[in-house]
Design goal:
Layout: H1 3-35, H2 57-68, H3 71-75, H4 82-116, H5 121-146, H6 157-182, H7 193-215, H8 246-249, H9 251-276, H10 283-308, H11 313-338
Helix pairs in contact: 1-4, 1-6, 1-11, 4-5, 5-6, 6-7, 6-11, 7-9, 7-11, 9-10, 10-11
């Protein structure tokens, strides 16, 4: 690869990191929108004209009247004032506007890089795939909102989990591509890869179950730790029939699973950090494990605090955002391990194994 191609790929990598940051902000804002009860305030999907907020009192009244016909107003917020409606409306409007902005931040540079011939053949299908997933995510967001506009004023936990999971899949693909472009290195197998792959699977599963915790509002029950209502296994743990429904629809089961998965992920991160000390890894790989353990420990502590304080909006939002950083840290550690020089004691890039 010549210097010009390297320069082009670096620019593409930086662009993908910018997209990752916007998506991270979108996940954070989505968490705040959910926790403030704002997600069902906009009852129509207007992909083009929806980027313009209400600019007159008449427009505000039209939006408010549409909301007053919704199940959420009728069953939860009856009697809400126009000023109170404006607060929740701005949260949802901001979330949708940022989602559309992410589409532009991705699509316009992609078109520019493609036109200039900067995108190598090996990246074209992956980038088009991410673009397609982004379009699907936009539809999934509205599909999720629709589930709360029919009879029950709450979005489907299944659709919420799908919406969040798809966002994190997009983040993972973009971040991994960015790492490969900004830190190109030859792929080499390493024993620590088993640990990072296991951590990646556990992180994804923990976040997926966490989405059901959010969708079922399971964080507002059993707010003690490590017990649940004074018990290790709460009453009604498997109280739904058939059995499989408990793992997706029973708040007691879902919160218990999320706790176990989160603590298991933390334990794996600690063991992986300890195990990597016995391998000859480069400084960057060691630093990646340090960062990974720090973020996972912070996320576990934040999750416990969020639960015990009855899910305040600020902590709940930070907990959702930090989940994205955990995912990014695992991906970074996996990349540094799988693209590290390996156990070659004669390489000057290697840090010696501690005694």
């Amino acid at each position: 690869m010549n210097l010009i191609e390297r320069h082009h790929q670096r620019r593409i990598g930086i662009w993908l990191l910018i997209c990752c940051f916007v998506l991270f902000s979108l996940v954070m804002l989505g968490g705040a929108t959910r926790l403030t009860g704002s997600g069902l305030s906009m009852v129509e999907w207007e992909p083009v004209t929806g980027v313009i907020p209400p600019m007159s009192e008449a427009r505000w009244m039209r939006e408010f009247e549409a909301y007053r016909a919704s199940p959420e107003y009728q069953k939860v917020n009856r009697g809400m004032s126009l000023d109170a409606f404006k607060v929740i409306y701005w949260f949802e409007f901001g979330h949708r506007l940022l989602a559309r902005s992410l589409g532009l931040v991705f699509a316009l540079p992609l078109a520019w890089f493609w036109w200039r011939g900067w995108i190598p053949g090996r990246l074209r299908w992956p980038l088009l795939g991410i673009f397609g997933l982004g379009a699907l995510q936009g539809w999934m967001g509205w599909y999720m909102v629709q589930s709360g506009l029919v009879d029950i004023p709450r979005v489907s936990p299944y659709r919420l989990a799908a919406h969040l999971s798809l966002a994190l899949i997009i983040f993972a693909f973009m971040f991994r591509l960015a790492l490969g472009l900004l830190m190109p290195a030859e792929h080499r197998p390493h024993p620590m890869r088993r640990w990072t792959i296991t951590l990646l699977a556990m992180t994804g599963l923990t976040i997926f179950v966490g989405a059901f915790v959010a969708g079922l509002r399971a964080g507002f029950v059993y707010n003690d730790f490590p017990l649940m209502a004074g018990q290790w296994i709460p009453d009604g743990f498997l109280g739904l029939a058939p059995l499989w429904r408990n793992f997706f629809e029973n708040p007691a089961t879902v919160q218990f699973m999320h706790r176990i998965l989160a603590l298991t992920t933390l334990a794996l991160a600690i063991v992986a950090w300890w195990r990597q000390r016995s391998h000859s890894l480069d400084v960057g790989a060691r630093r990646a494990f340090d960062i990974l353990l720090t973020i996972v420990a912070a996320q576990a502590a934040l999750g416990i605090a969020t639960l015990m304080l009855y899910v305040p909006v600020v902590l709940g939002t930070l907990h959702q955002g930090l989940a994205v950083l955990v995912l990014g840290a695992v991906i970074a550690a996996d990349y540094r391990v799988s693209h590290a020089p390996g156990d070659t004691p004669h390489s000057g890039r290697l840090a010696p194994a501690p005694a």
